[in-house]
């Protein structure tokens, strides 16, 4: 199974998107204990880290409740796997492209700030709720920079 990643750089950080890919078998796709993620990677040696952000990996995921009574939280540890545990196929993940989307990110953040300022100044309730809605839409677009999902090009529409 081959997965091509696109690295987006913006705002002094980076995030990853993946190109469309096919799972090696249905079993891995349906396996709830296996996740494709760049988060909570149990990363002892820094091998999966690039610019402080983890390159997404296929991982077996363990979540346990830790802490003592009254102060408990869920802790997830994801352990990267190199081979599909179901069919044995090698999992190859590579970063094939790096795209600087800083300008787009800055533009969206600026628009968001301007709308938010207008929203706080207006006396009209109707106008305020319109503006809030627009801010919400921009927030979603900005959040989508960080999501590990399929790369659809530089549209963000
Ligand atoms: Zn498989």
Mean pLDDT: 91
What is the ordering of alpha helices and beta strands? EEHEEEEEEHH
Query: What is the strand content?
Result: 25-35%
Query: Helix amount, in percent?
Result: 25-40%
Measured distance between first and last alpha carbons: 30 Å
Hetero ligands: zinc ion
Biggest beta-sheet profile: 3 strands, mixed
Short synopsis of the structure:
By secondary structure, this protein is of the alpha+beta class. Helix content is 28%, strand content 34%. Helix 2 packs antiparallel against helix 3.
Features of this protein?
157 residues; alpha+beta; 2 domains; three-stranded mixed β-sheet; three-stranded antiparallel β-sheet; 3 helices; globular; binds zinc ion
Would you give an account of this structure?
The protein has 157 residues and is α+β, with helices and mostly antiparallel strands. It folds into 2 domains: 2-100, no CATH class; 102-143. Helix content is 28%, strand content 34%. It contains 3 helices and 8 strands; from the N terminus they run ββαββββββαα. The chain has helices at 26-30, 102-121, 125-143, and strands spanning 2-10, 13-18, 34-37, 49-50, 53-54, 57-68, 71-80, 92-100. The strands form 3 sheets. A 3-stranded mixed sheet has the order 2-1-8, covered by helices on one side. Strand 1 (2-10) and strand 2 form a beta hairpin. The radius of gyration is 20 Å and the shape is globular. The model has no long low-confidence stretch (mean pLDDT 91). The structure holds zinc ion (ZN). Zinc ion (ZN) binds next to loops.
């Amino acid at each position: 199974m081959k997965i091509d990643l696109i690295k987006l750089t913006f705002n002094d950080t980076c995030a990853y998107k993946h190109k469309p890919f096919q799972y090696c078998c249905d079993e891995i796709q349906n396996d709830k204990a296996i996740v494709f993620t760049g988060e909570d990677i149990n990363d002892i040696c820094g091998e999966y880290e690039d610019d402080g952000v983890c390159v997404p990996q296929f991982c077996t995921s363990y979540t346990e409740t830790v802490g003592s009574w009254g102060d408990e939280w869920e802790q997830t540890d994801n352990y990267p796997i190199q081979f599909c545990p179901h069919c044995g196929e090698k999992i190859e993940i590579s970063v094939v492209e790096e795209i600087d989307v800083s300008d787009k990110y800055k533009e969206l953040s600026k628009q968001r700030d301007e709308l938010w300022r207008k929203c706080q100044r207006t006396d009209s309730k109707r106008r305020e709720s319109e503006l809030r809605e627009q801010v919400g839409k921009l927030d979603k677009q900005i959040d989508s920079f960080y999501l590990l999902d399929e790369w659809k090009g530089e549209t963000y529409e």
